[in-house]
Design a protein that fits this description.
alpha/beta, seven-stranded mixed β-sheet, Alpha-D-Glucose-1,6-Bisphosphate, Chain A, domain 3, binds alpha-D-glucose-1-phosphate-6-vanadate, seven-stranded antiparallel β-sheet, 3 domains, binds cobalt (II) ion, about 30% helix
């Protein structure tokens, strides 16, 4: 069957953000919109004729139709084989696993992650390379360049491929293999963690665990791994059926959006351990009984306890964290005598460090943690890691974290998000801060309680990749204070409405006697200073953040 060439014209809004292209479903439903982007991906690649592509998504609205479009276009462009998850499902870390295991050329993942879904919700698409990780900036830049000059795309006139059951079909000359979305992924996890110890913990009847899949992609993974393979009682996984609109929820595992889990974990009869994951299964939220673990602390705890997991028993080579993530992991790295890298926001910046063996664990303050087992952050992996540690240490989540703080000190940390802010106001705020940077060091600010804080450093974060020397600039405004505290300002690259301003606040406290202070209270002075420096209230018209994590 010969491919059909369809004439098209560029759209001017197809620049990939922190993690692929994310837009409203209604934008993706425009004729040629998805096709233009997919063809622009293929046109940025070379040597894929006859090769394997992995395709899957988080099951959100439009996933099914988009996959059929991509299958036809992959065939028309000359791929030899596509591996697609049954019913179009593949979590982001599972897609990474499948790409690596099958030595695929790359993969296309359909997800807008934690953004809401449904006909009025968001949709997204991203391309991953042969190492299983998100395409680096040089590829996303090439894709974007192609979207601005595209004149045609290639497709086939073929019927939809049935995706309901495993098996192989042909689309033109290309084979489409429908695969079990969970099997390879579950097998990989078994090779990393002490499944017998976790099974003893979960099936012993004493320890209680609640996993909230938030009606997103992790439901099938969590049921298979936690309930079937590890013996947790049926019902351990809640909201386990993936729904196209995530049940109307916001599949972002944080204390604001994971309401049901929070209510469960803070009830009088709360379970011992709670966790949640996001739309596409790459994020994790870790909660103890009446106790939230911040993602930055979680990364540090995993690093400090890594050798308890069989897959990391030989030790870890290094740690990487995104720049706005707290320095809690740095302290562990220092104690272990290993390197700690600071990268821009987004998992694509960890790929080179992982490939080069410079780091084993990576994490972001936005509830993303992962390791060299795949090239994406991995929600269920992080939960298994915690279960492994809990099984081996026999302590509560809270005890483990408090002991960690006592040993390494506590990095009080919070992120304040102002969502859906007027774009011009948000851009103006960042531009003015950027312009003010040279004059900031040495400036003394005073809070209403009379405390003074001196700015020691101020810059716009730029990163030179230690492996390929590529440079990424303008990655966030960093203000460092003389006492080691820090404020970071940046704009989100994943939103679809207006702008989202993220303000990251951090202060170190060595004294265990002061570790019990409530986080927002511990950061109150910094919160005031952030507003003094950036004029957040005046410029955005907001008196408080939309979300505090
Ligand atoms: C956010 C997070 C970032 C994460 C990205 C993708 O980006 O801050 O840490 O890597 O989402 O995660 P931004 O640009 O909105 O701050 V996911 O789970 O949405 O793929
Ligand atoms: Co995600």
């Amino acid at each position: 069957m010969t491919s059909r060439q369809v004439s098209t014209q560029p759209f001017d809004d197809q620049k990939p953000g922190t993690s692929g292209l994310r837009k409203k479903v209604t934008v993706f439903e425009q004729p040629h919109y998805l096709e233009n982007f997919v063809q622009s991906i293929f046109d940025s690649l070379q040597g894929f004729a006859g090769q394997t592509l992995v395709v899957g998504g988080d099951g959100r609205y439009h996933n099914d139709r988009a996959i059929q479009t991509i299958l036809r276009m992959a065939a028309a462009n000359g791929f030899g084989r596509v591996l697609v998850g049954q019913r179009g499902i593949l979590s982001t870390p599972a897609a990474s696993c499948v790409i690596r295991k099958n030595h695929a050329y790359g993969g296309i993942i359909l997800s807008a992650s934690h953004n809401p879904g449904g006909p009025d919700g968001d949709f997204g698409i991203k391309y991953n390379i042969a190492n299983g990780g998100p395409a680096p900036e040089k590829i996303t830049d090439a894709i974007f360049a192609n979207t601005t000059s595209i004149t045609r795309y290639l497709t086939l006139d073929t019927p939809d491929v049935p995706l309901d059951a495993p098996g192989t079909t042909k689309v033109g000359a290309m084979a489409v293999e429908v695969i079990d979305p969970v099997a390879d992924y579950a097998q990989l996890q078994q090779s990393l963690f002490d499944f017998p110890a976790i099974r003893a913990l979960l099936s012993g009847g004493r320890f209680r665990f609640c996993f909230d899949a938030m009606h997103a992609v992790t439901g099938p993974y969590a049921r298979e791994i936690f309930e079937r393979q590890l013996g947790a009682p049926a019902g351990t996984v809640i909201n386990g059926d993936p729904l196209p609109d995530f049940g109307g929820g916001h599949p972002d595992p944080n204390p604001t959006y994971a309401e049901q889990l929070m209510a469960t974990m803070f009830a009088d009869d709360a379970p011992d351990f709670g966790a949640a994951s996001d739309g596409d299964g790459d994020r994790n939220m870790i909660v103890g009984r009446h106790f939230i673990v911040t993602p930055s602390d979680s990364l540090a705890v995993l690093a400090a306890n890594a050798t308890l997991a069989p897959g990391y028993a030989g030790g870890i080579s290094g740690v990487a964290r995104s720049m706005p993530t707290s320095a809690a992991a740095d302290r562990v790295a220092q104690a272990l005598g290993i390197a700690c890298y600071e990268t821009p926001t987004g998992w694509k910046f960890f790929g080179n460090l992982l490939d080069a063996g410079k780091v084993t664990l990576c994490g972001e303050e936005s509830a993303g943690t992962g390791s060299n087992h795949v090239r994406e952050k991995d929600g269920v992996w992080a939960v298994l890691f915690w279960l492994n540690i809990l099984a081996r240490r026999g302590q509560s989540v809270e005890q483990i974290v408090r002991e960690h703080w006592a040993r390494f000190g506590r990095n009080f940390y919070s992120r304040h998000d102002y969502e859906g802010v007027d774009s011009a106001a948000a851009n103006g705020l960042i531009a003015d801060l950027r312009a003010a940077l040279p004059g900031l060091p040495g400036r003394v600010l005073t809070t209403t309680s009379g405390a003074t804080m001196t700015i020691a450093s101020a810059d716009d974060f730029a990163y030179t990749d230690p492996v390929d020397q590529s440079v990424s600039r303008a990655q966030g405004i960093r203000i460092g204070f003389a006492d080691g505290a820090r404020i970071v300002f940046r704009l989100s690259g994943t939103g679809t409405e207006g702008a989202t301003l993220r303000v990251y606040l951090e202060r170190f406290e060595a004294d265990p006697a002061r570790h019990g202070v409530e986080t927002q209270q511990a950061l109150a002075g910094l919160i005031e200073i952030a507003d003094q420096l950036a004029g957040i209230r005046a410029r955005t018209g907001r008196t408080q953040p939309t979300v505090i994590t």
